[in-house]
Amino acid sequence: MKEKLSVVKIGGNVIEDEKALDNFLSAFSRLEGLKILVHGGGKLATQLATKLGIESKMIDGRRITDAETVDIITMVYGGLANKKIVAQLQSKNINAIGLSGADGNSIQAHKRPVKQIDYGFVGDIDGVSSELLKNLLSINLTPIFCALSHDGAGQLLNTNADTIASEIAIGMASVFETTLYYCFEKKGVLLDITDENSVVKNIDTSKYKELLSKGVIADGMLPKLHNCFHALDNNVEKVCLGDVSMLDKNTKLFTTLKL
Amino acid sequence: MKEKLSVVKIGGNVIEDEKALDNFLSAFSRLEGLKILVHGGGKLATQLATKLGIESKMIDGRRITDAETVDIITMVYGGLANKKIVAQLQSKNINAIGLSGADGNSIQAHKRPVKQIDYGFVGDIDGVSSELLKNLLSINLTPIFCALSHDGAGQLLNTNADTIASEIAIGMASVFETTLYYCFEKKGVLLDITDENSVVKNIDTSKYKELLSKGVIADGMLPKLHNCFHALDNNVEKVCLGDVSMLDKNTKLFTTLKL
């Protein structure tokens, strides 16, 4: 039987709020078994850019990453957010180790080709070094990923943290029974966006198609759910969507996705 | 017989200069055998602080590290400098992994007690996890340390990179035949500060005392040489001081220190 592994992604709004982050990291530290954390940096990068007088350019909610911006993201995601999370987890007896995709060549990517839009230094993932992660986990380390990959030619690349989480889960699924958790501000997929408790508890492939056709899954949930089913299609055991209480298993109000 | 290990510290002036950094990293990548790199961030932290309107306070050349400043150092040393070095080494076929002292609990420290001066969030090192470093080296990873330690209670601490390098060398000396390299802008310890080629090639304990009494070792070289002999007194095989050409062994003009 395969050993269990949890891959947990936290949303930017948790990173921005000191108390929420501490709560989350406590819940994460209590999670049993092997685990990997993935985080972005939320609005912290935009805030630093603003202070430095650098304009943040967004198209359809995606950041245009020029040379100055990739430096800011490296500072904020790879430095401030990542090292603070690592230091705080150490104080909670988790032997955390912070990684970008360049560290240990853990996430290989290529710069997104320019079509209609030039996204700049944005990475599309080619592969994850599951061998490295297996080795780190085997010596009791807990990898903490920021949202950076690299092109192998010396360039760091801004990379969507949801995608990093699903690609890591996929990369590990051949070795571990892998559960992917997307932790965010909502309790799960909501039937009625105005009712926080209208959580759809279970979604399988046919339910997913039904919710898509009814328009229940829309806007920001579309790429999120796409990532979830992409992971399930590639041997990830299950995907859970919900707020921090989902990790502590002291609520049954979250969404579980299975094929 | 013990396996050989090189611990290399690079000076801030190399980090600040893109071409010099590339030259250095090429020389480092050609260095045979197991190796560990330690770097600070030079003036980059001061530059970012200035841009953000935060005053850099120095006393006797040492930075006073308040809460805002430790965040800046975490961004610049732990983020920008560390991840760029790691990405560039990956392009030179070195499987680099960037670490602060919090990552893998690799460098344990305590906040320097306040006596005449309150240095703020500055760390004095208590120990190095040689077991972790041995494990990382054994899976073909090359650790790249920035100048940050942690207190185990969630706080990152600004820590002198020369001291980190010597403490790592000392921590590894029981397992490896360890050489400590201090790479800086000079060719070594100079007999005459105005003559770049007046390098003292070999310094042992008695020569060290002679140079100290003659005032040849003064100012910034005093703590540097103190670090070197502290390492030698604690089982480090030898210490070399010089510029980048020392690493390539294409010069004999550098200083070697042995007991």
From TrEMBL, chains A, B:
HAMAP family associated with the record: ArgB
One GO cellular component, as annotated: cytoplasm
Catalytic activity annotation: N-acetyl-L-glutamate + ATP = N-acetyl-L-glutamyl 5-phosphate + ADP
Domain of life: Bacteria
Sites where the protein binds substrate: 41-42, 63, 158
Top-level EC class: transferase
Family according to the record: Belongs to the acetylglutamate kinase family. ArgB subfamily.
Annotated gene: argB
Pathway(s): Amino-acid biosynthesis; L-arginine biosynthesis; N(2)-acetyl-L-ornithine from L-glutamate: step 2/4
Residue intervals of the Aspartate/glutamate/uridylate kinase domain: 5-241
Primary localisation category: cytoplasm
Xref: SUPFAM superfamilies: Carbamate kinase-like
Species per Swiss-Prot/TrEMBL record: Maribacter stanieri
Protein's cellular compartments: Cytoplasm
GO molecular function: acetylglutamate kinase activity; ATP binding
Gene3D superfamilies for the chain: Acetylglutamate kinase-like (3.40.1160.10)
Entry function: Catalyzes the ATP-dependent phosphorylation of N-acetyl-L-glutamate.
Keyword Magnesium attached: no
Protein name as catalogued: Acetylglutamate kinase
